[in-house]
Amino acid sequence: MSALPYQLPKSAMQKILHLSKITSIPMNLLQGAGDAEIEAIAAMILYRHMDRLQRIEAMSVIRSVKNRALMGHILDKTLDTTFVNPQWGIWSLSNKELLEDINFHTVIDSFAGYVGIGGSIIGGKDMIKDIWTLKKMGKKHWTLIVIWGSVIFNKKELNKAQAELGNRQTINKSGLY
User: Fold this and answer.
1) Phi-psi region for residue 170, left (φ > 0), alpha (ψ -120 to 50) or beta?
2) What is the spatial distance between Cα 101 and Cα 93, in angstroms, rounded to a whole number?
């Protein structure tokens, strides 16, 4: 647990509340949770960055959780972020990966800000006018909607990454993270 990049409160209940907020584990799964569950959540967060032996130990910690629904939830998140997509649990990113993610989305956000606002307003006005008169949407309208959606998605991802950076009050040098 000392390898976590978070400054955790002292009491077990406060740790559970803090980690559940970061990892989006529903509170109903954490009823009666204690130190074993805290250790399992910590193992879930760090799992991607562990070597083979550490992963074996982490899996036994996760499987020791008595609440089967919680254990299944932790297992799903652990495997999803390790083998499918780390972005599904931004808490699983290392500090370096998180900073790279923020930089990437910041560049896209800046570019979209420079290019998009003026063109977007003009395009939006044209789209509304065309739809109103023609009663249909053309390729250029769909393209504009896709661009708007991409800009909104990027902004959402940037905000998510910046919120995670705010959660991390320490840059851990343990070698795991």
Assistant:
1) beta
2) 9
pTM across the whole model: 0.75
Reduced to 3 states, what is the DSSP secondary structure of residue 74? helix
Contact 46, 176 (CB under 8 A): yes
Strands (E), the chain: none
Q: Count CB atoms within 10 A of the CB of residue 41.
A: 31
| Residues 48-99: tens digit of each pLDDT | 999 999 999 999 999 999 999 999 999 999 999 999 999 999 999 998 999 9
Residues written for the chain? 177
Angle between helices 35-46 and 52-63 (to 10 degrees): 150
Give residue 137's region: left, alpha or beta (phi > 0; psi -120 to 50). Answer: beta
- Residues 6 or more apart whose CB falls under 8 angstroms from that of 169 comprise 6, 7
Amino acid at 32: G
